Amino acid sequence: MAAAVSRDNRPFQVVVWGATGYTGRLMCEQIAAEYPGAFRWGMAGRSRGKLEALRADLEKIDARCKDVPLIIADAADQTSIDSMVGQTDVIAACAGPFFLYGEGVVDACVRLGTQYCDITGETPWVRDLIRKYHDAAVAKGVRIVPFCGQDSVPSDLGTWFVVDHIKKKLNRKCDKVDAVLMRMEGGFSGGTISTAIKMTEQRTPSEMAKLLADPYHLDPPDGRRGSDGPDALMPVYHKELRVWCGPFPMAPVNTRVVRRSNALLGHAYGDDFKYSELWNRHNWLGAFLTTLVIVSIVLVVRFKFLQQLFGWFIPKPGEGPSEEDQRKGHWKYYMVGLTQEEPGVKPKVVKAKVADPHEPYVSTARMVLESALCLALEPDNLKKAGTLEGGVLTPATAMGPVLLHRLRKKGFTFEILESGAST
């Protein structure tokens, strides 16, 4: 049993670290619009001027935001980070690249008993966190939960949702889940692209290629491995959905997170559970063109002369989809689960929809906010749900049904479309 650290009488329930960044600002705007006065919170960053400007903007949304406390904390000054972390129950981290700015915050959270969630998609960094902090976080009952944004809540919670349905409604284990992105409208932020570029500079090309090629590189170091192989790169015809699919750019992140969830839960999804992610491109040509685009993106991220050549096209850190793009944006996954084969029984198919009528960065802000509120406000419900109480976790293993319920209340869709059809 983990020995939880007392967090009684701290000034804040949630502190937004990196509040003035693109996603941090969206998160603070969401708090101002939907949760004014509902919990004790503060905004943290390294620039008082930017924080004060953000607070003035939030005051236009709700007048009570004029009293939101500001915390000056710089990743280069561990004392200031410790001071920030020690004042709150939960840190919601939006300041990337996380491999540059995040470890000191995680270190302080583990030492000081503060829950943590973030929006990273940096699997090499999280792999390092697992090796450095997982056991200590387990011992202290501290949940360290990366991947609480678009990467990888839809994939991770969507898979958990399908597997849970298969267990409870069909009384079967799951053989595999395919997540197919059916539609996504939105853009990329400069921070996302900058992080991808800088991350590749931290390791040699061969080291990075070896790491990203390992489908289980977020699993416990000595954990059991399954039969999942490399992520799809060429066009694939998905027979259950009857669509041609191409590779999905974030599959190397999301697939590893889902597999870590299964491993942390004792491989409870299935005896040899498999997971893949694809992108609906309607026909073979569209799928093949997606392959070419993915290869081009990888080359731009890897080579500086291509970054210089296409620099005019790449948004700068802090920039992202416009307000018009945010209004038009939305996304939708179909999750297709297949039950495990049993003697004399045909496998069954379960189809589910996971969606949000918001642009992905807006969704990310909403998802990390609800994750932070899960950790801050619902410890009893998390315990009743049987979620894991400490370690470097995933959204599904740390919050599972509690987070799913909160997201549904905010307009996200988790819906079973078809249950138990024969293959």
Ordered list of secondary-structure elements with their pairings:
Elements: E1 12-17, H1 22-34, E2 41-45, H2 48-61, E3 70-72, H3 78-85, E4 88-93, H4 98-101, H5 103-112, E5 115-118, H6 123-140, E6 143-145, H7 153-169, E7 174-185, H8 190-200, H9 205-213, E8 236-238, E9 243-247, H10 251-264, E10 274-280, H11 284-302, H12 304-309, H13 323-328, E11 330-339, E12 348-356, H14 360-377, H15 379-384, E13 391-392, H16 395-398, H17 400-409, E14 413-422
Parallel strand pairs: 1-2, 1-4, 2-3, 4-5, 5-6, 6-13, 7-10
Antiparallel strand pairs: 7-11, 8-9, 9-10, 11-12, 12-14
Helix pairs in contact: 1-2, 1-14, 3-5, 5-6, 7-10, 14-17
Question: Would you kindly provide a written description of the structure presented here, covering whatever features stand out?
Answer:
The chain has 423 residues and is α/β, with parallel strands linked by helices. The chain has two domains: 12-150 and 362-407, NAD(P)-binding Rossmann-like Domain (Rossmann fold), CATH 3.40.50.720; 153-358 and 409-422. The chain contains 17 helices and 14 strands. The strands form two sheets. The chain has a seven-stranded parallel β-sheet, sandwiched between helices. Strands 8-9-10-7-11-12-14 form a seven-stranded mixed β-sheet. Strand 1 (12-17), helix 1 and strand 2 (41-45) form a beta-alpha-beta unit. Helix 14 packs across helix 17 (400-409). Residues 1-6 have low confidence and may be disordered. The chain crosses the membrane at residues 284-303. This is Saccharopine dehydrogenase NADP binding domain-containing protein.
